[in-house]
């Protein structure tokens, strides 16, 4: 590694390169149960040129590169299993430009979503994608993150207008343009978003933002059973109500929320909803939604127009994963993440709940049910090999159930290492096309190797 | 070609293979000024297996393949400049499944958008993407088509949930799943949509559809100048009004519409608008829009809730290209297709109008201004070499103006051959990544060769 460090130092300052044990340890893990692995070196680029230099050094010495935002990843994407260099983007955290008239913003990859929204608020704008964590926008683009507002505003890929990407050889490309739509060339924006650092490193992102809605109504609805709650969601979607958020939280998770966020929500299967638009239209949408809920035996429907109450509700929802972690010291979090066609959602959630009951570890079901995406969040004792094995088996069962019904193994958390075992089953021969793309763009297999696709010949999948 | 035909015949029936002069001539052109070129053979597959066989024959004899829908393409995509085999998908025109509960439909590539909408109507559903032509859905996916409703519902790429694709070697892949969102694998849906037959042939498409909106209001607004009309659009977008359609049509084009569609619209710069939603919400949106229009000196604002009047308005708009063709017998159509950031739209249209005036050929400006996308439609005398040269120069000037302002050379028509000269300038070094992808997926360069990217070494661009 001495040679690699010396090569890095030809363009990077000493404080941009670390082999410190604590720093390496901080870059050896994500927020979940995945096994840790220490990198050899952590680097902190400040410019695109720095990243380009790091890439060239990586190629010269055949040293793997793993990009890192804040490490809020959930499937081990940021864990450097092949060691080498972790590239931490926390120094590249500038909001470069807000083009108010075009509803566009250009940021460096280390900017977090909360940092961006704080700034955008001054302009009456907001960025829509909201995973639970205060993740970096670079990381969110790398994993095609989404969140509670996806049902209305779309996933991360839908917001990306252009990326500046440093490729394996250190060259720099732009993947899109500033136009709202384009039919020019292959869709590189779409290819690089969700590529999890396996095709290049993002050094600048131009993202679509939205005007803060004129009027917002949040609501909570509780149901006698999980099934009825999910069926209500299906009906709302089919009625075409342009809902902005519709989140399911089960009873076990409501208990965690009440404890962690000091709320006193009834311990029942609950939908958290939100509507954005003009006042007259929203009133009609809320009334229609309430009617549909009642058709599904909803036993309470509370709407909140007050800003503080609404924020508290969504903070509670966003903090749910942390509530579980906080409530189960010493255990590690595992999250399933399937998405299924809406017609399969109710049965999929019922199946998952039954499997979760059999598993017998603390956990709950929650999710972005408007997209057919739900999570089983479970807390596992990593010292108990039997429990870990059964938890993995549970995750697998939930995934296979979804895949058999035309779903996906990951709705929003990405592949990382956690969903590698299901790539062949989900994508079939299309996985070979992905491998060909990976080989063409990263011939030495140094960019976050063995994530999404494994390119080695004869590798058993 | 004898050998190729014999190889095709091992799996295809005689009536699926044609070398008839008239049939070849029908597959030698698109709807515009682009130079024609006769294929050697036209084949009519009926199944995915047929397409797979055709691909294998193409590889065996190194014969180029060009897919063909109804030939409504505008940039020469379907013209077989390298001759070889044209694959006409008109026999693959079945609607395979409508999954009403999931708002999904699976179709063969030869199904046209009007055919699909006629069927969907029975279920209270519609497919949103509406280019002027009654194009096939396979062709629309191949070119990432869009149309008048894109400002609300998105482009073709946004509707594609899954594609069955036959690759160069005859193997068959699925590019997506039935889930509304996924973070699994590379985004092959996005890569294949817009690939214009250069990476594979689509044999099945699963598309997202929508419930027919509860309430629809259409409107026409006229303005004293083109500038004021475009500025009004910019203001509507910035106000965040969820408009479903906003189309600009200039005076010259209103004259064509009035003649061809027997309307008597005032000959003024005009916006055609549409709003979808619940009645109360729409009334508020329409009122707010009218206010904004008036701030921009709108001199008439007429809204239509009557179904027949509304349909007539949109038919008139959709038939505009045909109105021009009909009104200028013996001439050929050329359409520019840039899209620019909204902040650049007014100046871009003014620039285009000035250049069009200098050019001195019949033509007008129209477009999907809500997406920053507009077309200059001009009719040219192909026998007049000077006029053709000046028209090409005009097209180039409009493109360069857009590219210099962060726009794209094609908002929706695609690259084909018409936009090949601008690929390097628009994409820079990213074009080399596109070439690498093309080489990886089509190593013998037989799939619609020399469209989007030219892979030959030393090819001057």
TrEMBL record, chains A, B:
Pfam families: FAD-oxidase_C, FAD_binding_4
Annotated SUPFAM superfamilies: FAD-binding/transporter-associated domain-like, FAD-linked oxidases, C-terminal domain
Superkingdom of the organism of origin: Bacteria
EC number, UniProt record: 1.1.2.4
Protein name as catalogued: D-lactate dehydrogenase (cytochrome)
Keyword Transit peptide: yes
GO-annotated molecular function: D-lactate dehydrogenase (cytochrome) activity; D-lactate dehydrogenase (NAD+) activity; FAD binding
Occurrences of domain FAD-binding PCMH-type (ranges): 35-212
Cofactor: FAD
Organism: Oceanobacillus polygoni
Keywords carried by this UniProt record: FAD, Flavoprotein, Oxidoreductase, Transit peptide
GO terms under biological process: lactate catabolic process
Family note: Belongs to the FAD-binding oxidoreductase/transferase type 4 family.
Classification via Gene3D superfamilies: 3.30.465.10, 3.30.70.2740, Vanillyl-alcohol Oxidase, Chain A, domain 4
């Amino acid at each position: 590694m001495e040679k690699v460090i010396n090569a890095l130092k030809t363009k990077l300052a000493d404080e941009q390169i670390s082999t410190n044990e604590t720093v390496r340890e901080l870059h050896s893990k994500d927020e979940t149960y995945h096994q840790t692995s220490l990198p050899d070196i952590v680097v902190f680029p400040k410019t695109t040129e720095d990243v380009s230099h790091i890439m060239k050094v990586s190629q010269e010495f055949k040293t793997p590169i793993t990009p890192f935002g804040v490490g809020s990843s959930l499937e081990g994407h940021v864990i450097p299993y092949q060691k080498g260099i972790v590239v931490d983007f926390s120094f590249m955290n500038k909001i470069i430009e807000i083009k108010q008239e075009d509803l566009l913003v250009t940021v460096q990859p280390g900017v977090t979503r909360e940092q961006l929204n704080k700034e955008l608020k001054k302009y009456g704008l907001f960025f829509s994608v909201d995973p639970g964590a205060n993740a970096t926008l670079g990381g969110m683009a790398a994993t095609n993150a989404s969140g509670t507002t996806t049902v209305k505003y779309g996933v991360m890929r839908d917001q990306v207008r252009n990326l500046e990407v440093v490729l394996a050889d250190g060259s720099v490309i732009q993947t899109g343009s500033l136009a709202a739509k384009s039919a020019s060339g292959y869709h590189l924006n779409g290819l690089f978003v969700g590529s999890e650092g396996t095709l290049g490193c993002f050094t600048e992102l131009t993202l679509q933002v939205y005007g803060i809605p004129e009027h917002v109504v949040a609501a909570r609805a509780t149901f006698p059973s999980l099934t009825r709650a999910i069926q209500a969601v299906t009906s709302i979607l089919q009625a075409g109500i342009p809902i902005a958020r519709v989140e399911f939280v089960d009873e076990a998770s409501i208990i965690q929320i009440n404890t962690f966020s000091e709320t006193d929500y009834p311990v029942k299967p609950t939908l958290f909803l939100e509507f954005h638009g003009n006042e007259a239209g929203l009133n009609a949408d809320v009334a229609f939604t309430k009617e549909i809920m009642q058709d599904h035996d909803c036993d309470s429907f509370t709407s909140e127009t007050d800003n503080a109450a609404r924020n508290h509700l969504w903070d509670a929802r966003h903090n749910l994963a942390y509530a579980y972690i906080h409530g189960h010291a010493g255990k590690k979090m595992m999250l399933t993440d399937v998405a299924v066609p809406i017609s399969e959602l109710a049965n999929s959630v019922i199946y998952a709940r039954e499997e979760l009951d059999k598993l017998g570890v603390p956990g709950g079901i929650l999710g972005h049910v408007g997209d057919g995406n739900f999570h089983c969040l479970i807390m596992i004792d990593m010292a108990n090999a039997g429990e870990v094995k059964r938890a993995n088996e549970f995750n697998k069962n939930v995934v296979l159930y979804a895949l058999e019904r035309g779903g996906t193994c990951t709705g929003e958390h990405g592949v990382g290492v956690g969903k590698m075992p299901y790539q062949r089953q989900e994508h079939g021969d299309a996985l070979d096309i992905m491998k060909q793309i990976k080989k063409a763009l990263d011939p030495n297999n140094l960019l976050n190797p063995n994530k999404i696709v494994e390119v080695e010949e004869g590798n058993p999948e």
